[in-house]
C-alpha cells in the first residue's frame, strides 16, 4: 500500500515538473509573441493537466486504501500526516516527495502568475491597437447656415461587401 502511494506521488511529481518546464517555455513564447508556438504548447499543457487529474484520482484511491487497511479515523488526513503515521522507510520517502511537490507547485504558481500578467498585458495591447484601427472620426453635427453637414468618412476594419 505504501509503495503504491509513493509510486503515485513520484509520478505526480514527474508530471508537475514537466508542467513547470512547459510553463517556463510558455513564458519565453509569450515574451517573444509567437502565437503558433503558444497554441502548440498550450495543447501540451492541457494533456499534462488531464494526466495529473488521472493520477490525482489514483492518489486518492491509494490514500483511501491505506486509511481502510490501517483503520485510521481522522477528519482531514493529509499526506504529511500519513508520512508521520507510516513506518520507516515509507515515512521518510513520503516526506521527501511531499517537500519536492511543494517546491515544484510553488514555482508553478509563481510562473503562472507571471504568465497571466504577460497575457493580460498582451490583451490590453491588442485591444488598444484594435480600438485605434476601428476608431471612427466624428465630424461636426451642425453646418453653417445654409450649408449641408459633411458626413465624416467611416473607417472600418472589414469590407462591407460579401
Description:
- The chain is mainly alpha-helical.
- It has one domain (about 1-130): Up-down Bundle (Methane Monooxygenase Hydroxylase, Chain G, domain 1).
- Helices cover about 75% and strands about 0% of the residues.
- It is built from 4 helices and no strands.
- It has helices spanning about 1-30, 35-70, 80-85, 90-135.
- Helix 1 packs antiparallel against helix 2 (about 35-70) and helix 1 runs parallel beside helix 4.
- The radius of gyration is 28 Å and the shape is elongated.
- About 10% of the residues are buried.
Write the layout of secondary structure elements.
Blueprint: H1 2-32, H2 35-70, H3 79-85, H4 90-134
Helix and strand composition category? mainly alpha
Count of individual helical segments: 4
Count of discrete domains: 1
Radius of gyration: 28 Å
CATH architecture type: Up-down Bundle
Order of helices and strands: HHHH
Subunit arrangement of the protein: single chain
Helix content: over 70%
Task: Kindly state the number of beta strands.
Answer: 0
Uncertain runs are: none
Give the overall silhouette. Answer: elongated
- Average pLDDT works out at 84
Q: β content, as a range?
A: under 5%
Q: Alpha-carbon distance between the termini?
A: 66 Å
- CATH topology-level fold name: Methane Monooxygenase Hydroxylase, Chain G, domain 1
CATH class: Mainly Alpha
Please describe the biggest sheet, giving its number of strands, its sense, and whether it closes into a barrel. none
